[in-house]
């Protein structure tokens, strides 16, 4: 008698398996690209609509059904009216001074504070670090009243750009970010420098700072964008129109052009375009800085 053998399962040829895997990967990749494209469109749409509104002429409607996105009669007259009504160049220069100075001081002070917290051993180091982190949960608005009293009665820098710079001298988040970047540097490198006779300040300036340059750039970008867009505190401190920053000065557009959305859109575009171009130019350093800090 011949023994009955079980029928073997039909094996799928290797080329077919590879083709299925390749198609599956292609479908997953296409799905992720579709999701990212949808997020990008949702993110970019308000800026595109604002810019297109700013170049619409009087004959172009703003709110219609269906909406008209592209102007039939594009013009820069809205920008000309905004520039004629407000001292935009003064606003722009003030914003640049405040943002650049605040960014440089934050990089300097935060790095000086982060280095001992990351690489030096002393009593209370962890307590100081966690106390700094605890300040992140305190809303900035709670500090406005004491800061205003100090600005008017103690430091006497009310209605000056110094009132925007010194309260933002350093950020606990920037200290945390640089501390994580410093921690990623091997201690052997610092020990070798100490053996050669280098002091802590020399190690900080000649060894640590060049290594963490991407993180320094990320701190500078964070601070620059935050300072450029800040509105509430500058609106409390600045009173003279020529001394205002762009966000505070352009708030007057709601009074000058309360019913002219084209002019308001032009003013908002003037505020956003410089910081958008700055971020596009510096995004490579920004991503590298965040990646280094997270790894640390």
Architecture overview:
It contains 14 helices and no strands. It is mainly α and 296 residues long. The protein is flat, with a radius of gyration of 28 Å. The chain starts with 13 loop residues before the first helix and ends with a helix. The model has no long low-confidence stretch (mean pLDDT 84).
SSE topology:
Elements: H1 14-54, H2 77-85, H3 88-119, H4 125-134, H5 144-154, H6 162-165, H7 172-183, H8 187-195, H9 200-211, H10 213-229, H11 232-237, H12 246-249, H13 253-256, H14 261-295
CATH class of the largest domain: Mainly Alpha
Rg, nearest Å = 28 Å
Structural class: mainly alpha
By DSSP (H or I, 4+ residues per run), the number of helices equals 14
**Shape estimate:** flat
CATH architecture of the largest domain: Orthogonal Bundle
Q: pLDDT under 50 segments (min length 5)?
A: none
| CATH level-four homologous superfamily name of the largest domain | MetI-like
The total strand number stands at 0
Order of helices and strands: HHHHHHHHHHHHHH
End-to-end distance:
73 Å
The number of domains is: 2
Average pLDDT: 84
Kindly state the percentage of residues in helix.
55-70%
In this structure, how is the largest beta sheet organized?
none
What's the short version?
This protein is mainly α and 296 residues long. The protein has 14 helices and no strands. The chain folds into 2 domains: 62 residues; 211 residues, Orthogonal Bundle (MetI-like fold).
């Amino acid at each position: 008698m011949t023994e009955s053998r079980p029928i073997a399962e039909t094996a799928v040829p290797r080329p077919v398996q590879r083709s299925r895997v390749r198609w599956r990967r292609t479908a997953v990749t296409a799905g992720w690209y579709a999701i990212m494209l949808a997020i990008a469109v949702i993110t970019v749409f308000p800026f595109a609509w604002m810019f297109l509104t700013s170049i619409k002429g009087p004959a172009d409607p703003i709110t219609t059904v269906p909406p008209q996105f592209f102007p039939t009669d594009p013009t820069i007259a809205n920008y000309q009216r905004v520039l004629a009504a407000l001292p935009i160049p003064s606003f722009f220069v003030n914003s640049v001074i405040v943002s650049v100075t605040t960014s440089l001081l934050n990089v300097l002070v935060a790095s000086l504070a982060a280095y001992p917290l990351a690489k030096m051993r002393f009593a209370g180091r962890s307590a100081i670090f966690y106390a700094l982190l605890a300040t992140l949960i305190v809303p900035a608005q709670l500090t406005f009243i004491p800061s205003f009293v100090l600005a008017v009665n103690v430091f006497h820098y009310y209605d000056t750009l110094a009132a925007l710079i010194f309260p933002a001298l350093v950020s606990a988040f920037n200290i945390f970010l640089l501390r994580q970047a410093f921690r990623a540097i091997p201690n052997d490198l610092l020990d070798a420098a100490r053996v050669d006779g280098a002091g802590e300040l020399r190690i900080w300036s000649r060894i640590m700072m060049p290594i963490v340059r991407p993180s320094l750039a990320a701190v500078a970008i964070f601070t620059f964008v935050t300072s450029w867009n800040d509105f509430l505190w500058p609106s409390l401190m600045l009173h003279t129109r020529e001394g205002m920053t762009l966000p505070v000065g352009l708030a007057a557009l709601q009074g000058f052009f309360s019913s002219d959305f084209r002019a308001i859109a032009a003013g908002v575009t003037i505020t956003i375009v410089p910081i958008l171009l700055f971020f596009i130019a510096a995004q490579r350093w920004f991503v590298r800085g965040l990646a280094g800090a997270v790894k640390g």
